[in-house]
From TrEMBL:
This is Synaptonemal complex central element protein 1. It holds the Pfam family SYCE1. The keyword Coiled coil applies. Residues 31-153 form a coiled coil. It comes from the Eukaryota. GO terms for cellular component: synaptonemal complex. Residues 1-10 have a biased composition (Polar residues). Belongs to the SYCE family. Keywords: Coiled coil, Meiosis. It comes from Coregonus suidteri. The keyword Nucleotide-binding does not apply. Residues 1-26 are annotated as: Disordered. GO terms for biological process: synaptonemal complex assembly.
Amino acid sequence: MSVSVGSSFNVEDVLRPSMKEGGHEDVEPKVEQLMNKLKKLQQGKRATEEEVKEAHSLRDSLQEELDALQTEAYQLEGVHKEKEELCRVLQFQCEEMEQDSTRQQQLNRKSEDLIEQYRCQIQETKLKHRKHRMKFENQLQQLIEQHKNLHSVFSPDRLPAEIESVENTKSQLLKAEQLKLSQLCHLEESLDEARRQTPTDPADRRTD
Protein backbone atom coordinates (compact mmCIF):
# COMPACT_ATOMS: atom_id res chain seq x y z
CA MET A 1 0.00 0.00 0.00
CA SER A 2 1.44 3.34 -1.02
CA VAL A 3 1.14 6.32 1.33
CA SER A 4 2.28 9.72 0.14
CA VAL A 5 2.96 12.62 2.46
CA GLY A 6 3.25 16.02 0.86
CA SER A 7 6.40 17.99 1.39
CA SER A 8 4.33 21.17 1.99
CA PHE A 9 2.64 19.68 5.02
CA ASN A 10 2.12 22.42 7.66
CA VAL A 11 1.36 21.68 11.29
CA GLU A 12 -0.52 24.94 11.67
CA ASP A 13 -2.96 23.85 8.92
CA VAL A 14 -3.68 20.74 10.94
CA LEU A 15 -4.03 22.70 14.22
CA ARG A 16 -6.16 25.48 12.83
CA PRO A 17 -9.56 23.68 12.89
CA SER A 18 -8.96 22.40 16.39
CA MET A 19 -8.10 25.87 17.71
CA LYS A 20 -11.28 27.23 16.24
CA GLU A 21 -13.44 24.56 17.79
CA GLY A 22 -11.99 23.93 21.21
CA GLY A 23 -9.87 26.89 22.16
CA HIS A 24 -6.36 26.97 23.53
CA GLU A 25 -6.86 24.32 26.20
CA ASP A 26 -7.16 21.50 23.60
CA VAL A 27 -4.24 22.55 21.38
CA GLU A 28 -1.37 20.78 23.13
CA PRO A 29 -2.92 17.29 23.28
CA LYS A 30 -4.01 17.49 19.67
CA VAL A 31 -0.58 18.70 18.57
CA GLU A 32 1.04 15.72 20.27
CA GLN A 33 -1.43 13.35 18.68
CA LEU A 34 -0.87 14.90 15.29
CA MET A 35 2.91 14.73 15.71
CA ASN A 36 2.68 11.05 16.57
CA LYS A 37 0.44 10.49 13.60
CA LEU A 38 2.88 12.41 11.42
CA LYS A 39 5.78 10.26 12.61
CA LYS A 40 3.83 7.13 11.85
CA LEU A 41 3.01 8.46 8.42
CA GLN A 42 6.65 9.31 7.78
CA GLN A 43 7.72 5.85 8.97
CA GLY A 44 5.11 4.33 6.70
CA LYS A 45 6.39 6.44 3.83
CA ARG A 46 9.96 5.31 4.40
CA ALA A 47 8.85 1.68 4.67
CA THR A 48 6.86 2.06 1.47
CA GLU A 49 9.83 3.63 -0.30
CA GLU A 50 12.02 0.71 0.84
CA GLU A 51 9.44 -1.74 -0.44
CA VAL A 52 9.32 0.12 -3.76
CA LYS A 53 13.12 -0.01 -3.98
CA GLU A 54 13.10 -3.73 -3.20
CA ALA A 55 10.36 -4.26 -5.78
CA HIS A 56 12.37 -2.37 -8.39
CA SER A 57 15.48 -4.35 -7.48
CA LEU A 58 13.54 -7.61 -7.68
CA ARG A 59 12.04 -6.54 -11.01
CA ASP A 60 15.52 -5.74 -12.39
CA SER A 61 16.85 -9.06 -11.11
CA LEU A 62 13.96 -10.97 -12.65
CA GLN A 63 14.42 -9.10 -15.92
CA GLU A 64 18.12 -10.03 -15.99
CA GLU A 65 17.22 -13.63 -15.24
CA LEU A 66 14.60 -13.57 -17.99
CA ASP A 67 17.15 -12.15 -20.47
CA ALA A 68 19.63 -14.84 -19.48
CA LEU A 69 17.00 -17.55 -19.93
CA GLN A 70 16.02 -16.17 -23.33
CA THR A 71 19.68 -16.14 -24.40
CA GLU A 72 20.14 -19.70 -23.17
CA ALA A 73 16.94 -20.78 -24.94
CA TYR A 74 18.20 -19.23 -28.19
CA GLN A 75 21.54 -21.02 -27.81
CA LEU A 76 19.82 -24.32 -27.02
CA GLU A 77 17.61 -23.89 -30.06
CA GLY A 78 20.73 -23.45 -32.22
CA VAL A 79 22.32 -26.56 -30.67
CA HIS A 80 19.08 -28.48 -31.26
CA LYS A 81 19.06 -27.49 -34.93
CA GLU A 82 22.71 -28.53 -35.30
CA LYS A 83 21.98 -31.91 -33.71
CA GLU A 84 18.97 -32.40 -35.97
CA GLU A 85 21.14 -31.68 -39.02
CA LEU A 86 23.83 -34.06 -37.73
CA CYS A 87 21.16 -36.70 -37.15
CA ARG A 88 19.95 -36.34 -40.74
CA VAL A 89 23.51 -36.65 -42.06
CA LEU A 90 24.17 -39.74 -39.95
CA GLN A 91 20.88 -41.27 -41.03
CA PHE A 92 21.80 -40.70 -44.67
CA GLN A 93 25.24 -42.24 -44.14
CA CYS A 94 23.69 -45.20 -42.34
CA GLU A 95 21.33 -45.82 -45.26
CA GLU A 96 24.25 -45.60 -47.70
CA MET A 97 26.26 -48.08 -45.63
CA GLU A 98 23.31 -50.47 -45.54
CA GLN A 99 22.97 -50.24 -49.31
CA ASP A 100 26.73 -50.78 -49.72
CA SER A 101 26.54 -53.76 -47.38
CA THR A 102 23.69 -55.27 -49.41
CA ARG A 103 25.58 -54.78 -52.69
CA GLN A 104 28.76 -56.20 -51.18
CA GLN A 105 26.92 -59.27 -49.89
CA GLN A 106 25.46 -59.85 -53.34
CA LEU A 107 28.93 -59.52 -54.90
CA ASN A 108 30.36 -61.90 -52.32
CA ARG A 109 27.67 -64.48 -53.07
CA LYS A 110 28.37 -64.17 -56.80
CA SER A 111 32.11 -64.52 -56.19
CA GLU A 112 31.60 -67.57 -53.99
CA ASP A 113 29.31 -69.15 -56.57
CA LEU A 114 31.84 -68.46 -59.32
CA ILE A 115 34.70 -69.85 -57.24
CA GLU A 116 32.67 -72.97 -56.47
CA GLN A 117 31.89 -73.33 -60.16
CA TYR A 118 35.59 -73.10 -61.02
CA ARG A 119 36.40 -75.60 -58.30
CA CYS A 120 33.89 -78.08 -59.72
CA GLN A 121 35.32 -77.56 -63.20
CA ILE A 122 38.83 -78.19 -61.88
CA GLN A 123 37.70 -81.39 -60.14
CA GLU A 124 35.98 -82.55 -63.31
CA THR A 125 39.10 -81.74 -65.35
CA LYS A 126 41.27 -83.67 -62.87
CA LEU A 127 38.93 -86.64 -63.08
CA LYS A 128 38.99 -86.55 -66.87
CA HIS A 129 42.80 -86.39 -66.90
CA ARG A 130 42.98 -89.26 -64.44
CA LYS A 131 40.73 -91.36 -66.67
CA HIS A 132 42.73 -90.42 -69.76
CA ARG A 133 45.96 -91.25 -68.00
CA MET A 134 44.69 -94.65 -66.92
CA LYS A 135 43.44 -95.32 -70.43
CA PHE A 136 46.76 -94.16 -71.90
CA GLU A 137 48.74 -96.31 -69.47
CA ASN A 138 46.64 -99.32 -70.36
CA GLN A 139 47.07 -98.69 -74.06
CA LEU A 140 50.78 -98.08 -73.59
CA GLN A 141 51.17 -101.25 -71.59
CA GLN A 142 49.36 -103.18 -74.28
CA LEU A 143 51.61 -101.60 -76.87
CA ILE A 144 54.72 -102.58 -74.93
CA GLU A 145 53.46 -106.11 -74.61
CA GLN A 146 52.79 -106.17 -78.34
CA HIS A 147 56.33 -104.97 -79.01
CA LYS A 148 57.69 -107.61 -76.71
CA ASN A 149 55.65 -110.27 -78.46
CA LEU A 150 56.97 -109.09 -81.81
CA HIS A 151 60.49 -109.97 -80.73
CA SER A 152 60.38 -112.95 -82.96
CA VAL A 153 59.28 -110.82 -85.91
CA PHE A 154 61.65 -107.84 -85.55
CA SER A 155 65.39 -108.02 -85.37
CA PRO A 156 66.73 -108.30 -81.85
CA ASP A 157 68.97 -105.31 -82.55
CA ARG A 158 66.01 -102.96 -83.30
CA LEU A 159 63.73 -104.11 -80.52
CA PRO A 160 65.52 -102.32 -77.64
CA ALA A 161 65.45 -99.07 -79.65
CA GLU A 162 61.72 -99.42 -80.25
CA ILE A 163 61.08 -100.10 -76.60
CA GLU A 164 63.22 -97.12 -75.57
CA SER A 165 61.31 -94.88 -78.01
CA VAL A 166 58.01 -95.99 -76.52
CA GLU A 167 59.32 -95.41 -73.00
CA ASN A 168 60.46 -91.90 -73.97
CA THR A 169 57.05 -91.16 -75.46
CA LYS A 170 55.41 -92.40 -72.28
CA SER A 171 57.71 -90.22 -70.16
CA GLN A 172 56.96 -87.13 -72.25
CA LEU A 173 53.21 -87.70 -72.07
CA LEU A 174 53.39 -88.19 -68.30
CA LYS A 175 55.39 -84.99 -67.93
CA ALA A 176 52.83 -83.09 -70.02
CA GLU A 177 50.03 -84.47 -67.88
CA GLN A 178 51.85 -83.56 -64.66
CA LEU A 179 52.35 -80.02 -65.97
CA LYS A 180 48.62 -79.69 -66.67
CA LEU A 181 47.78 -81.04 -63.22
CA SER A 182 50.25 -78.60 -61.64
CA GLN A 183 48.63 -75.71 -63.51
CA LEU A 184 45.20 -76.84 -62.34
CA CYS A 185 46.39 -77.02 -58.72
CA HIS A 186 47.91 -73.56 -59.01
CA LEU A 187 44.62 -72.24 -60.40
CA GLU A 188 42.71 -73.81 -57.53
CA GLU A 189 45.07 -72.25 -54.97
CA SER A 190 44.62 -68.86 -56.66
CA LEU A 191 40.85 -69.20 -56.39
CA ASP A 192 41.12 -70.05 -52.68
CA GLU A 193 43.35 -67.04 -52.11
CA ALA A 194 40.92 -64.77 -53.99
CA ARG A 195 38.04 -66.01 -51.88
CA ARG A 196 39.96 -65.41 -48.64
CA GLN A 197 40.82 -61.87 -49.72
CA THR A 198 37.24 -61.05 -50.71
CA PRO A 199 35.92 -58.57 -48.04
CA THR A 200 32.77 -59.69 -46.27
CA ASP A 201 31.97 -56.34 -44.64
CA PRO A 202 31.76 -52.95 -46.41
CA ALA A 203 33.45 -51.46 -43.36
CA ASP A 204 36.67 -53.25 -44.54
CA ARG A 205 36.60 -51.02 -47.61
CA ARG A 206 36.17 -47.84 -45.60
CA THR A 207 39.00 -46.10 -43.88
CA ASP A 208 37.12 -43.06 -42.61
